[in-house]
Design brief:
By secondary structure, this protein is α/β, with parallel strands linked by helices. It has 9 helices and 8 strands. Helix 6 runs parallel beside helix 7.
Length: 274
């Protein structure tokens, strides 16, 4: 089984994708539905996907679960709840009963306070995620790495995966500080990491050699058993396409036993995809 561990669907007319305003007339701001993704999956031989939230509303989570119910290849959904409202525990408990609901992703990268995740009023959410045995997708930038490490230390039982390798600034050639912080997290915490989003962080015209130091560092530090590939489609289209990122990741990861983990096994275990 080959798994795309990170993809999106959206309908901009729903009105809650506030981040889209920053992109102007970007071609990714269009209706994106399962029928648009299916040809990419078929070309690459991908069997199942993990659908990840793209709007900070509970309604977005309900919308995605509805799409997942009618889509054979969507195995799991990563949704959203309001960490700043403890009453949202009832939503988490309700959503946890859905067989395709896996967990949540707060959009930490978009928040002005880099240390938001440590606020006392949001700690209930990490406890609830852990108690309900759900997953937590950690979305941020390199500036969040130290904050996330403290969070991972505080909640070692929370099933956590870092999205997009924590978005290293590849376009600027920044490597050392990001690499050191990621190595520490890999060594000292049990969290997983997604091999996704790297082409978006590079300059246009990137090559496999551009991305390889970053991707290889993730694989070397976390090991194939804690790394999972994701397309980040259709965001990937900002600086690549589905096929070019797929081919680049395959070239970097190779074809050995570790590759089977990165392109399916790890995601299947982490997200509990049958």
């Amino acid at each position: 089984m080959i798994v795309d561990a990170h993809q999106h669907f959206w309908a901009p007319a729903r009105g809650d994708y506030l981040w889209m305003a920053r992109l102007g007339n970007s071609p990714i701001i269009r209706d994106v539905f399962p029928r648009h993704l299916r040809p990419h999956l078929e070309r690459c031989g991908i069997n199942r996907t993990v659908l990840v939230q793209a709007a900070a509303t509970v309604e977005e989570t309900e919308y995605m679960l509805g799409l997942a119910d009618g889509t054979d290849f969507v195995a799991k959904v990563v949704g959203w709840i309001d960490f700043e409202d403890q009453n949202h525990r009832r939503h988490l408990e309700r959503l946890a009963k859905h067989p395709k609901f896996s967990g949540v992703r707060p959009m930490i990268q978009d928040l002005p306070d880099a240390g938001w995740m440590h606020r006392p009023d949001v700690q209930w959410a990490y406890g609830a995620i852990t108690d309900l045995d759900l997953t937590f997708d950690a979305l941020g930038y390199p500036l969040h790495l130290d904050h996330f490490r403290r969070l991972f230390d505080r909640y070692p039982r929370m099933r956590t995966v870092i999205d997009h390798g924590m978005k290293p600034a590849i376009r600027d050639g920044a490597f050392d500080d990001w690499a050191k912080a990621m190595a520490v997290i890999a060594r000292e915490t049990p969290v997983f990491c997604k091999l996704s989003g790297l082409s978006t962080e590079a300059r246009p015209g990137w090559t496999v050699e551009t991305l390889k130091p970053y991707a290889q560092h993730i694989i070397d530090c976390f090991g194939p058993g804690r790394v999972m590939w994701g397309s980040d489609w259709p965001v990937v289209e900002l600086n690549a396409d589905y096929g070019s990122w797929w081919q680049a990741a395959r070239a970097i990861a190779g074809t050995g036993a570790g590759s089977a983990e990165i392109f399916g096994g790890t995601a299947a275990r982490f997200y509990r995809i049958a």
